[in-house]
């Protein structure tokens, strides 16, 4: 491990991370211990579970989770592991009054409390037997969870500037239309960097994005230890968005805001569409990606919605293909670090590295 950490610290100033940071299994384990197990991970959107009893299941870093609306105003993130002998108590998504384990039929209320345990004497049971609840937080319509017992949500100062930057888009009021669960063949950091790098837009997406948000119009936004962001302005030839929140300025109507809440929620919001990708690492080269699309319009026609979904499926397929190939290159014995492009195009990567170094306790000098 120490040799990779030395490689990171000793790489030339303003360079990308050493390739082994993306390919070495021990380094991923180290990241999980030092960073990911103590961080806030996005699980999806609040309006996926609007009614009491609505739930969905998801696995993050080998932790099976049950996300449930337990009351009109409260969402709980519960351990999806039966207190009897460890079976996941729910699968998929749906609506229920109680969760019934499929193994021996123990049942749990929406808040995780045990309701019945057939044929087990009462005195055998813990008095407060329940599915453990994790720390969770809702921000701008996103549901986050943190596995650390003493986790605290980000300080106001660390997200204030991003909130101000995004507030006119009213993301919390956008309507979730669809989400997909996929497995991508790349390292989690590669996808964070790719999404936050405006440098590749015109090259990787010549037909899907170049005519809308060309690389040349990308502009970095100041970040903090909690996020990085950039603005992708729309080309003058790009069609104007027909519907949008009235509070957006004329400039904002013609922009997309791309941001990453560290470590692994990446999203793009424009006047009429929010697309997010919640990344959950599986291995150095395998990544679970829950990605979803929400719209400003509540009553978008099926045809228009389909068009937006297909466009983003295409964009994501282009990125996935690039990142699959990138991973092959990163595994080469000759792969090395390389210089980053100027601030507006890859400055977000320097923000991401700054965050990683802070979490790994590394000297930041070579980052700038
Ligand atoms: S493991 Fe759930 S009831 Fe037995
Ligand atoms: Fe891309």
Tell me what the structure shows.
It is a single chain. The protein is an alpha+beta fold. The protein has 2 domains: 2-37 and 156-367, Naphthalene 1,2-dioxygenase Alpha Subunit, Chain A, domain 1 (Alpha-Beta Complex); 41-146, 3-layer Sandwich (Rieske Iron-sulfur Protein), CATH 2.102.10. It is 26% helix and 28% strand. The chain is built from 9 helices and 17 strands. The chain has helices at residues 2-10, 20-23, 25-34, 156-166, 188-195, 201-204, 250-253, 302-330, 343-360, and strands at residues 41-45, 54-60, 63-71, 74-79, 93-95, 99-100, 107-108, 114-116, 133-139, 142-146, 175-184, 218-221, 227-233, 255-261, 265-269, 273-283, 286-295. Strands 1-10-9-4-3-2-5 form a 7-stranded antiparallel beta sheet, with no helix packed on it. It has a 7-stranded antiparallel beta sheet with strand order 11-17-16-15-14-13-12, with helices on both faces. The protein has a 3-stranded antiparallel beta sheet with strand order 6-7-8, with no helix packed on it. A hairpin with a 2-residue loop joins strand 2 and strand 3 (63-71). The longest helix has 29 residues, at 302-330. The model has no long low-confidence stretch (mean pLDDT 96). It binds FE2/S2 (inorganic) cluster (FES) and fe (ii) ion (FE2). FE2/S2 (inorganic) cluster is lined by residues 82, 84-87, 101, 103-106. Residues 82, 84-87, 101, 103-106 line the site of FE2/S2 (inorganic) cluster (FES).
């Amino acid at each position: 491990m120490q040799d990779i950490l030395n490689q990171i610290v000793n790489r030339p100033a303003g360079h990308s991370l050493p390739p082994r940071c993306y390919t070495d299994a021990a380094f991923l384990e180290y990241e999980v211990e030092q960073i990911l197990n103590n961080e806030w991970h996005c699980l999806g959107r609040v309006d996926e579970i609007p009614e009491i009893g609505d739930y969905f299941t998801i696995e993050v870093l080998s932790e099976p989770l049950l996300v449930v609306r337990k009351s009109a105003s409260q969402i709980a993130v519960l351990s999806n592991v039966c207190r009897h002998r460890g079976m996941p108590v729910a699968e998929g998504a749906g609506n229920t009054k109680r969760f019934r384990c499929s193994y021996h039929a123990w049942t749990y209320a929406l808040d995780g409390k045990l309701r019945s345990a057939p044929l087990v004497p009462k005195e055998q049971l813990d008095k407060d037997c329940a599915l453990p609840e994790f720390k969770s937080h809702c921000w701008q319509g996103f549901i986050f969870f943190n596995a650390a017992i003493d986790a605290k949500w980000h300080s106001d100062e660390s997200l204030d500037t991003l909130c101000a930057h995004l507030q006119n888009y009213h993301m919390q009021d956008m309507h979730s239309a669809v989400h997909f669960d996929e497995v991508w063949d790349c390292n989690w950091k590669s996808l964070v960097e790719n999404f936050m790098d405006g440098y590749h837009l015109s090259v990787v997406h010549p037909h899907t994005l170049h005519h809308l948000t060309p690389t040349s119009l990308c502009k970095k936004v100041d970040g903090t230890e909690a996020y990085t962001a950039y603005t992708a302005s729309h080309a003058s030839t790009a069609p104007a968005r027909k519907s949008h929140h009235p509070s957006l300025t004329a400039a904002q109507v013609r922009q997309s805001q791309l941001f990453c809440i560290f470590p692994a929620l990446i999203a793009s919001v424009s006047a009429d569409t929010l697309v997010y990708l919640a990344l959950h690492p599986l291995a150095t080269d395998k990544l679970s990606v829950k990605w979803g699309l929400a719209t400003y319009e509540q009553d978008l026609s099926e045809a228009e919605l389909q068009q937006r979904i297909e466009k983003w499926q295409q964009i994501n397929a282009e990125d996935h293909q690039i990142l699959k190939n990138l991973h092959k290159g990163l595994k080469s014995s000759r792969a090395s670090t390389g210089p980053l492009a100027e601030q507006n195009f890859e400055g977000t990567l320097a923000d991401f590295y700054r965050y990683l170094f802070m979490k790994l306790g590394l000297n930041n000098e070579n980052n700038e």
